[in-house]
Amino acid sequence: MLRSYAGNAAFKAVQCSIPTMRENPTRILAMLQKQQQSAQRPGRNLHVGLATSQTEVLEAQKLRYRVFADEMGARLTTRSPGVDRDLYDAFCEHLIVRDEDAGRIVGTYRILSPSAAREVGNYYSETEFDITRLRHLKSRMVEIGRSCIDADYRSGAVITLLWSGLARYMLENKYDYLIGCASVSMADGGHTAASLYNRLKDEHLCPLEYRVFPRTPLPLQALRQDIEADTPPLIKGYLRAGAWICGEPAWDPDFNTADLPVLLPVSRLDARYAKHFMGRKD
Predict the structure, then answer these.
(1) Looking at the domain assignment, is residue 205 inside a domain?
(2) Cα–Cα distance list, 91 to 1, 165, 221, 234 (Å)
(3) How many domains does the chain have?
(4) Average pLDDT over residues 59-83
(5) Which domain holds residue 238?
(6) Fewer beta carbons below 10 Å: N end or C end of the chain?
(7) Region 132-153: what's the mean pLDDT?
(8) Does residue 3 lie in a domain region?
(9) Residues in Cβ contact with 27 at an 8 Å cutoff, skipping those fewer than 6 apart
């Protein structure tokens, strides 16, 4: 999953406020509410939009807890049982997919805009990586994370809607870069993650000027790097879209994952993705 997982001990959970639409609020809401994209199938009517109330944010945080803690076994630091909430939530905008027929949120991303990152003090990615070489991008760089989808809705429709919402958010605000962390399970001790990085870096590693450095590196030299491992679907999707891997993976002990730093310059977006998600013709 491309996400900024909770679980960093340096940041304690805080109460979440209703998210603010800091960048062109009226236009963003119009884009994601009046021009909602939908995916219909028997019994399902899915709509994507930005959360506009604390109730919706809380529901998204509960979904995150079910996926990250209950399903994946992550050790989340939270003051509210069953709720995944950290320092960054109050500064983020929360993109959600709702099943209107079932009356519940079934997918979510959180979005940290450049101005919100300045307000909170940094990007979440900076807790895992030294991103000094990206400092010149910060005024145009959006961080996405906390992506998760309800287990009953992983057929592809929900992630497609989330990506469409993200693309329109980027387009409407004229942002040029997406940053996030792509996680690989370390259930086998990290051998699969090391092997995956070893394979992907040959084709997808970023230029040196965009390189970032893990604060807690995965000990690659102590791990096997020759295991044949399938690329997780979400990582595969971002790489196909044109994203770079910006350096070696960091180890997240709370989630027991290896986190790959991923950067997607909008200028590199594959033409098929640009046409499908952003409406571009060139």
Answers:
(1) yes
(2) 21, 19, 38, 25
(3) 1
(4) 93
(5) 25-278
(6) C
(7) 97
(8) no
(9) 172
Task: Give pTM, 2 decimals.
Answer: 0.83
Comparing CA positions, the residue from 124, 177, 160 lying closest to residue 234 is: 160
How far, in Å, CA of 181 to CA of 165, rounded? 19
Residue 111 Cα distances to 30, 122, 201, 267, 280, angstroms: 17, 13, 26, 20, 22
pLDDT band at 43 (very low <50, low <70, confident <90, very high): low
Which of 48, 55, 60 has the alpha carbon at shortest distance from 17? 55
Determine, yes or no, domain membership for 19: no
Has residue 223 got a pLDDT over 90? yes
- 25 — pLDDT class (breaks 50, 70, 90): very low
- Say which CATH number the domain at 250 has: 3.40.630.30
Residue 119 covered by a domain: yes
> What pLDDT score was predicted for residue 14?
27
